[in-house]
Amino acid sequence: MQTSRRAHRNERAIESYDVGLPPPRSNCAGYVYLRRGETGDQRLLNDEDAMIRRLERRGFCSINIQDLELGEIHAALCEATVIVSLDGSHITHIYYTAPENAALVTMIPDDRFVDVHKKYCDCVGMRIGFLVCGRAGDGYDVDLERTLDLVPS
After folding, report:
1. Closest-CA residue to 147 (of 74, 52, 71)
2. Which of 41, 54, 102, 136 could be cross-linked to 141 through a Cys-Cys bond (beta carbons 3.0 to 4.6 Å apart)?
């Protein structure tokens, strides 16, 4: 639990973040699957396309950060109430743009488990859930049903 002083300091820092972005214009209001693509260290989900199709049936839109400019990424996230993604530094976009009380569901590879996003979410008032996924071949297997169980409806 953070102190009120710390919470106030964090609130001021978030309010001071301004990159002069245009007003949000996105088809991603609500639920977003944040796809890291092939950016950064290689971390791919096996059957990611099948998972995206399932999420889309639940009302998610999928954005691939390697295909978008910064303003487009932020526009897609600024109204997101639930963000699902494989763990990675690309998730940090949400802390500047997603609304307070948004929820992050992250899939964390078992061979590089870190909880940095838990601490960030606590700092900015977001909720978090995570699922550990195991290495399988060149990627990671994720239990799709367990992942979907973590997603608020």
Report:
1. 52
2. 136
